[in-house]
Design a protein that fits this description.
Bound molecules: flavin mononucleotide
CATH superfamily of the largest domain: Aldolase class I
Shape: globular
Largest sheet: 8 strands, parallel
Number of helices: 16
Helix content: 40-55%
Length: 345
């Protein structure tokens, strides 16, 4: 398979592992890169030391290209970005912020930059800022997908920008990959499918959840971590969505946030006071969301925690090694192309 993304990133399949907190860690990242895709380390909830350790460990596990993501909206993102850039990680993926300075610095060592976006406005901004490609995330996606479904969002952006588009949200098989290419994308990025793989560190019970849940079993709300996000419909999700937070909650939770991100507490505390009530509530939600996502992902607790999961969970019925997932998607995409050719003559 050859697309602008395989050429840009030097990979065999145009398939990318989405940056998933606690899940896109060296073992899974290296498995995806070794199998011919591109693994991306999720640095969002990592401290600076953890980010450096993850990069070093990934380099021990694979000599193939890999990436690291930076969630610019999180406290501590700049510090992680510096490490990722100093380490000359081949592909840097940023989201939720302006990445012109990242593009500039990564390009000085010959690295590539991918911005994750959910709207045309942000895709155009990423292109202007110098990104080499964009991941466009539709409404079906686990976590922070956009308001518009992939089927409509991908072509609407692909036809208006020049840099290649990687489609995310709702992709788990070869039919999906072939469809994404038809919609104007040059590759796909998958979260839920790789979360449910043998190499994934998600709690084993959540792989079972993914195998049995259907396309209807998710909810989309901004009441978990403050940004619209999709997750498993569960007791935990219902409970947290009802939780009322006020600006004081952010100060009360500031120790928790600073500990989780390895960010200086005093700096965070002053920052919360200066940011005003609306943003402080958002910060409190982020802390609640982090905790819930960690419990859901790593402890398999769907009563107190929350599991990000995409609608595509309804198309996934098995837990396979990453290598088999990629091989199967490749074979299915070729079969889909043949079937299409026989239908459209
Ligand atoms: C368990 C899990 C954890 C995730 N964590 C994050 C995260 O920390 N930050 C983020 O931006 N997206 C996160 N995502 C979303 C993915 O990066 C990606 O956008 C999404 O999974 C793509 O849609 P799909 O699940 O339909 O493949 C997560 C997804 C899953 C399944």
């Amino acid at each position: 398979m050859k697309t602008r993304i395989t050429t840009l990133l030097g990979i065999k399949y145009p398939i990318i592992l989405s940056g998933m907190s606690w899940i896109s860690v060296p073992k899974l990242v290296a498995a995806v890169s070794e199998a011919g895709g591109l693994g991306i380390i999720a640095s969002g909830v990592m401290t600076a030391e953890e980010t450096l350790g993850a990069i070093q460990e990934t380099r021990k596990l694979t000599k193939k290209p890999f990436g690291a993501n930076i969630t610019l909206y999180f406290p501590g993102a700049k510090r992680n970005a510096k490490i990722i850039i100093d380490q000359k990680v081949p592909v840097v993926n940023y989201a939720l912020g302006k990445g012109d300075w990242i593009c500039k610095e990564v390009h000085t060592y010959g690295g590539k930059v991918i911005a994750t976006v959910t709207t045309l406005k942000h895709a155009m901004a990423a292109q202007r800022d110098g990104a080499d490609a964009v991941i466009v995330t539709g409404h079906e996606a686990a976590g922070h997908g956009g308001a518009v479904t992939s089927l409509v969002l991908i072509p609407s952006i692909a036809e208006k920008i020049d840099i290649p588009v990687i489609a995310a949200g709702g992709f788990a098989d070869g039919r999906g990959l072939a469809s994404a290419l038809l919609l104007g994308a040059e590759g796909i990025s998958m979260g839920t499918r790789f979360m449910n793989s043998v190499e994934s560190p998600v709690h084993p019970s959540q792989k079972e959840v993914s195998n049995r849940t259907e396309v209807y079993d998710t909810v989309y709300s901004d009441k978990i971590d403050g940004l619209p996000a999709r997750m498993l419909r569960s007791k935990g999700a219902k409970r947290i969505m009802k939780k009322r937070l006020n600006p004081l909650s952010a100060l009360v939770r500031s120790r928790e946030i600073s500990k989780m991100l390895g960010f200086p507490w005093a700096k965070l505390f002053v920052g919360i006071i200066l940011m005003g009530p609306k943003k402080a509530i958002q910060m409190a939600r982020m802390a609640v969301g982090f905790k819930a996502f960690q419990l859901g992902t790593m402890e398999g607790d769907n009563e107190r925690g929350v599991l990000p999961i995409g609608q595509v969970t309804g198309l996934i019925h098995d837990t396979l090694p990453v290598k088999e997932i990629l091989k199967r998607i490749d074979a299915e995409a070729h079969a889909a192309a043949k079937a299409l050719n026989s239908k459209i003559k």
